[in-house]
Description:
Two copies of one chain form a homodimer.
Chain A: E1 9-12, H1 26-38, E2 43-44, H2 58-70, H3 87-99, E3 105-107, H4 118-132, E4 139-143, H5 145-148, H6 154-163, E5 168-173, H7 178-187, E6 192-195, H8 201-206, E7 211-213, H9 217-230, H10 236-251, H11 255-267, H12 284-298
Parallel strand pairs in A: 1-2, 1-7, 3-4, 4-5, 5-6
Amino acid sequence: MKGKPNFSGVIAPVVTPFGEDGAPDVDRFIEHAEWLLENGCTGLAPFGTTSEANSLGLDERMELLEELVDGGVDPAKLMPGTGSCSVADAAILTQHAVDLGCGGVLMLPPFYYKNPSEEGIVRFFADVVDDVGDDRLRIYLYHIPQVAQVGFPLPLIARLKQEFPGTVVGLKDSSGDWANTKAILDAHPDLEIFPGSELFLLQGLRAGAAGCISATANVGARAMRRLVDGWEGPDADKMQEEISAIRLTIQAFPVIPTLKALIAHYREDPGWAEVRPPFVPLPRAEAERAITTLADKHGFRLDFAEAA
Amino acid sequence: MKGKPNFSGVIAPVVTPFGEDGAPDVDRFIEHAEWLLENGCTGLAPFGTTSEANSLGLDERMELLEELVDGGVDPAKLMPGTGSCSVADAAILTQHAVDLGCGGVLMLPPFYYKNPSEEGIVRFFADVVDDVGDDRLRIYLYHIPQVAQVGFPLPLIARLKQEFPGTVVGLKDSSGDWANTKAILDAHPDLEIFPGSELFLLQGLRAGAAGCISATANVGARAMRRLVDGWEGPDADKMQEEISAIRLTIQAFPVIPTLKALIAHYREDPGWAEVRPPFVPLPRAEAERAITTLADKHGFRLDFAEAA
């Protein structure tokens, strides 16, 4: 049986805003993180795929995380991405997150070399765990095979859990393949499992998932939170339908530039729409189409006035 | 017409040795680099795929490069890999290489996010070139789509050459697809083009390639150099046949662990065989089979006694 989980509910991989000079914008970042925690999110996963983490430099990632904690965000609610192709940099990022008191870290496998052996991935994690050498370390495996191309198949998950008991405690499944998420849930009821999309939120909760970690939680966490709180009630299926309709609308656009365009629009702050290469900002017409479609068809809007 | 090229001939993506503590082994690294330059190589491309560069940390890469130059290797002969998923880290590595006087840099495209737009990749390179802001910068594009999953298709190469004239000066084509290499050679006779395998060395030289940058140059540069020096002579086809036979034998094994196992064997230095995760060392029986096959069938051996 599971003990008290470290993380549950709705977790947003916080989008990373950039200033006019192209550097990460600390003020916008903290403001958005706090707004998320006040508007549905139970935790934050900065430096995920949605955060353009792999477009950030090693130092930029560490500085932003420090600013977030210094800015008052409870580090226990933070599950920063700390994966890297190299043991060396993964260990630096992970140690840094643990030192700041983060509740967990979300780790990609090393993703440059393709088709690594199971043994090679286990050794990678063994080296990181050994380098960090801290009992507080809690690792969430980040399975996103369509992007990283290197993933966590079921036998590897089992082996990592067995090799690092109490350290490897969960997984985010961003495969978009419910059958895979269900198989992991069935095999590992003792892990904290998060589907990577709210499309599977209700199915997930019914099957023992801890919640979801989803890109679109950056703009839609409130509705997801209502479902997390009410999934055993009579309105659950209807809530899931509404959540799914919005998700499907957003993911028909390039997700990261669209999330930023939505925030820019409702904050009346055009600078928010900036992205780093290899992404390009959403063309204005596309952004307007996304905003209008969501508003007209789904009554979707963001209310930043309610932020503290 | 081409001016005097920055690089030509046989270039080895230097394998990176590790010490017992798992850290890069500077002494072995410099010794191997110098041996390569004395035994066929005209240049070195440290921190390529074969170098396990993406298993090294940002600081480790910069420290090793400094040690190489401090150790007496002519930086004009160095084309270090400085690509990264992030503009920030790519710019740091590239600036560092330029500051050390390196003749060029070999750059992967940002490879985490898949299917980037052409515009996104151009912006990535624009940001790196702008951040470095140094006229000495010479970029060689590193096309290895089967690993990076993000490559340099022909229209992108043309656009990068046009946007950064005199800065984007060459390309390594590790696709293993001669038709692609030939198409690039035909379209861009003004670029320094290097097939990523000596299997295409003679074909390449005949079609205008500058040489080759090949993993197996770590152990077979002398024979490749003889072909580069004698490709217009009567023995060229026979030389290519012998080179290809050795290459095909090596690449039937896991290449990086096998190259290290060969060096470890002939240096009588077992520590040379170490690799970093996600790679694992070649099992002893496999290593012996590689060594024996190469020696018995192809008369292949490494002579480190001749090193300075």
